[in-house]
Amino acid sequence: AQKVTQAQTEISVVEKEDVTLDCVYETRDTTYYLFWYKQPPSGELVFLIRRNSFDEQNEISGRYSWNFQKSTSSFNFTITASQVVDSAVYFCALSEAEESGTYKYIFGTGTRLKVLA
Amino acid sequence: GAGVSQTPSNKVTEKGKYVELRCDPISGHTALYWYRQSLGQGPEFLIYFQGTGAADDSGLPNDRFFAVRPEGSVSTLKIQRTERGDSAVYLCASSLIDSGKYNEQFFGPGTRLTVL
Description:
Strand content of chain B: over 45%
Distance between the termini of chain B: 37 Å
Shape of chain B: globular
Order of helices and strands of chain A: EEEEEEEEEEEE
Number of strands of chain A: 12
Oligomer: heterodimer
Distance between the termini of chain A: 41 Å
Radius of gyration of chain A: 14 Å
Structural class of chain A: mainly beta
């Protein structure tokens, strides 16, 4: 069965600290996609990154980096030198490449990040 | 270009009433999704449209929920005989489905439904 676990409900850090948000997933498929979205207080989900199951390269985008490890079924997200504007709820999501072509997302419960000035 | 838009942004109704929630996807996006997000939870899938047809409605909680997309663009989520448990934020997303290529979903701002 598909499942995404974000065990960290809430994290508080002081500005400029590094922080890692954990994501563990379960799937029986060999082809799947993983995503991270940011949901600021305004409520709109903002796409951050997509990763397919065949690409285990880690990725860095500015202060953001992602560590995908199939061996541990994890897709963790690190923010370096956090800023107050990073405060939001972050969601990890899984999508399987089903034959039906649905590509629906299975979301985790989210991690609320608070960055204190 | 314009993103996904949803109307109304807020809807307050009484138990037992009928409501319609509207979604305007990004122009040219053939795939459209509805999700429901309860307080403190991640969004949960409701239904997926590819073009005009509902390709997957496995997430609809019961037969009080129905959605249409008659012209393959705008979609309406309809809830009959609303219950207090239906209170949530209803999110719409759209994406471009290319043959052999999967693209991310873009989300609208949501409609906050409150059933009194």
